[in-house]
Design a protein that fits this description.
Helix content is 75%, strand content 3%. The protein contains 16 helices and 2 strands. It has a two-stranded antiparallel sheet with strand order 1-2. Strand 1 and strand 2 form a beta hairpin. It is flat.
C-alpha cells in the first residue's frame, strides 16, 4: 500500500512539472505584453522543420520566415503588427511621392513638346526625362509590391494563417494586377506616332493627324492619384487610433476611404469641395488640351481648355469651343458627369449649412408661438368687440348696412382665429422630429424602468412585512399557548385547593360527631 501511494505521488509531481513547463512555454510573464524591442521571436514546430528540410532537399525555394507566423506570446504578435503598420504607412507615403514625381516629370515633358519646336522625342533632354520617368515608374511598382506584401503579412497575423497562398483570393489578385498595370503606364523612351482621326467643324470634314504615342500614355498617369486616397486613409486618426478600431469592430464598421471621405465631408465640407472641384478643373482642362492641341489651334491656350471644362462642368455648354477628337469628347463627358455629382454635393452641403440647429429651432419656434398666441388673443378680442357692436346696433335700430359691415368683420375675425389655430397645430407637428421622439422614448423607458424597480422594492417590502406579520402571529400563538397553560395550571391549583378544604371540613365534621 505504501509503495502504491509513493508511485502515485511521484506521478502527480511529474504531471505538475510538465504543466508548469508547458505554461512557461506558452506565455512567459517576464516578457512585456506590447514591447518586444522591435525583434519578434518566432517559434516553429517539428513538422514545420521537417517540411523545410524536405523542401531544401527537393530543390524548392528556401524556407523563409514569411510562413512562420507563430509567436511565443500575444505581446510579440502585437509588437510585430504595430511594426508592420508603421512600415506600411511609410511605404505608402514613398509610393505616393514617387508617383507624384513621375506625373510632374510627365507634365514637364509634355509642355516642352507643345511649347518648344526644338524639343522633340529624339532630343537628348527628352530621352533623359523619359528615362527618369521610367525609373520612377519602376520604383513605384516596387513600392506597390512591397506594400501588398506587408498588407499580406498583416492579414496573415490577424487571421492566424500559416500559408500565404490562403490569404490571396482571386479578387485581391485581380486588384493587385490592375493596380500594377495602372502604375506601369508611362511615356516610354523613343519617338512613336500613330494616325489620329478628328473632325473639322469649319470645313465639315474628317482630318487625320499624326499624334505621338505619349499622348495616350501620359493622360492615364493621373490614375496614380489613387495613392493619395490610401495615404489619407493610413494617416487618418480614425484609422490609426486603436480605440476607434475597437469601436468600429464592435459596431461592424470598416474603416475604408469611403468612410474617411464621409467624415471629412461632415467635418470640413467647404474645404473638401473646393479641393475636389479645383482638382477636376485643372486635371480635366490639361488632359483636354493634350488631346486637342494637335487638332485645333484654340486649344493651344490652356485657358480655352479650362473654359470648355468649366462650361461642361456646370452643364452650360455655349458651343463656342468644342472638342474635335474622341479623346476630348470622352474627357468632356467625364467632366460633365463629375460636375453633376459635385453639384449634388454642393446642394447637400448648402442644405446642411442653412439648416437651423436644434437650439436655433427652439428659439425660432418659441418666437413664432408667442406671435401666434398674440394673434389668437387679438382675433378673440375682435370677435367679442364686433359681436357687442352688432347687438348694440340692432338694439338701437341702426341701418342694416352698418350691421352687415360688423357681421363681415366678425366672420373675418372668426376665419383668422381658425387659421391661427391651424398654424399652431402645424408648428407643433413640425417640432416633433426624430430626435424628440427618441428623447421621449428614452424618457418613457427610464420612467418604466424606475417604476419596475420601485415595484420590485415594494414587492420586497411587502414580502418582508408578510414575514414579520407571520413572525408576530407565531409569537402570538406561542403567547396564547403560554397563557392557556398558565390558566390551566391556575385552575388546577384552585380545584386542588378547593378539594383539600372539603376533605378537611369533612374530617372535622366527622371528629365532632
Amino acid at each position: 500500500m505504501e509503495s502504491e501511494l509513493t508511485s502515485f505521488t511521484e506521478k502527480l509531481k511529474a504531471t505538475s512539472s510538465n504543466l508548469n513547463n508547458m505554461s512557461a512555454t506558452v506565455e512567459n510573464p517576464t516578457v512585456p505584453l506590447v514591447q518586444s524591442n522591435g525583434q519578434p521571436n518566432y517559434t516553429s514546430t517539428e513538422d514545420d522543420m521537417e517540411k523545410g528540410a524536405a523542401a531544401k532537399k527537393k530543390g524548392r525555394k528556401k524556407w523563409s520566415k514569411f510562413k512562420q507566423t507563430r509567436f511565443e506570446n500575444v505581446g510579440e504578435m502585437l509588437a510585430q503588427r504595430k511594426e508592420l503598420f508603421r512600415k506600411r504607412r511609410n511605404v505608402s507615403d514613398v509610393a505616393f511621392v514617387t508617383g507624384l514625381v513621375g506625373i510632374i516629370l510627365m507634365i514637364i515633358h509634355t509642355e516642352l513638346i507643345v511649347a518648344d519646336n526644338d524639343y522633340t522625342n529624339t532630343s537628348a533632354a527628352a530621352i533623359v526625362l523619359k528615362v527618369f520617368i521610367t525609373l520612377s515608374t519602376i520604383d513605384l511598382i516596387g513600392m506597390v509590391i512591397w506594400f501588398h506584401l506587408i498588407d499580406l503579412k498583416l492579414y496573415m497575423i490577424d487571421n492566424g494563417m500559416q500559408d500565404w497562398l490562403l490569404a490571396i483570393s482571386p479578387q485581391s489578385a485581380f486588384q493587385i494586377s490592375l493596380e500594377l498595370i495602372i502604375c506601369a503606364i508611362h511615356p516610354i523612351p523613343g519617338d512613336i506616332a500613330f494616325q489620329w482621326l478628328s473632325y473639322d467643324f469649319q470645313n465639315e470634314s474628317q482630318v487625320t493627324v499624326q499624334v505621338p504615342l505619349d499622348v495616350v500614355l501620359s493622360i492615364p498617369m493621373f490614375l496614380r492619384l489613387y495613392l493619395l486616397c490610401r495615404v489619407m486613409l493610413l494617416h487618418s486618426k480614425l484609422f490609426a487610433d486603436a480605440r476607434s478600431q475597437s469601436l468600429g469592430a464592435l459596431n461592424k464598421t470598416k474603416f475604408t476611404f469611403y468612410f474617411i471621405f464621409k467624415s471629412l465631408m461632415y467635418l470640413h465640407p467647404v474645404y473638401v469641395m473646393v479641393v475636389l472641384i479645383t482638382s477636376i478643373f485643372l486635371i480635366g482642362s490639361w488632359a483636354l488640351r493634350v488631346c486637342e492641341v494637335d487638332h485645333a489651334v484654340l486649344h493651344e491656350s490652356y485657358w480655352n481648355s479650362l473654359w470648355l471644362v468649366a462650361i461642361t462642368f456646370l452643364s452650360v455648354g455655349y458651343g463656342d469651343i468644342v472638342p474635335h477628337t474622341y479623346c476630348g469628347r470622352a474627357i468632356s463627358v467625364s467632366v460633365g458627369m463629375l460636375g453633376a455629382g459635385c453639384t449634388a454635393l454642393v446642394v447637400a452641403v448648402l442644405a446642411q449649412k442653412l439648416e437651423l440647429s436644434r437650439a436655433e429651432k427652439y428659439v425660432h419656434n418659441f418666437v413664432i408661438d408667442v406671435e401666434l398666441d398674440k394673434k389668437l388673443k387679438n382675433s378673440a378680442a375682435r370677435i367679442l368687440g364686433y359681436g357687442w357692436r352688432i347687438y348694440r346696433a340692432r338694439k338701437n335700430g341702426e341701418n342694416e348696412g352698418i350691421i352687415r359691415g360688423y357681421q363681415r368683420k366678425l366672420l373675418k375675425a372668426i376665419d383668422n382665429i381658425r387659421k391661427t389655430k391651424q398654424e399652431q397645430r402645424k408648428m407643433v407637428d413640425s417640432q416633433v422630429t426624430v430626435l424628440e421622439v427618441y428623447k421621449n422614448q428614452s424618457f418613457i423607458s427610464d420612467a418604466v424602468e424606475n417604476i419596475i424597480t420601485k415595484q420590485d422594492d415594494i414587492e420586497g417590502a411587502v414580502e418582508t412585512m408578510k414575514n414579520q406579520v407571520g413572525h408576530i402571529g407565531r409569537k402570538l400563538d406561542e403567547l396564547c399557548r403560554v397563557m392557556a397553560n398558565r390558566k390551566e395550571r391556575r385552575d388546577t391549583k384552585r380545584s386542588d385547593a378547593a378539594g383539600g378544604q372539603g376533605h378537611q371540613a369533612d374530617y372535622l365534621t366527622g371528629g365532632d360527631e
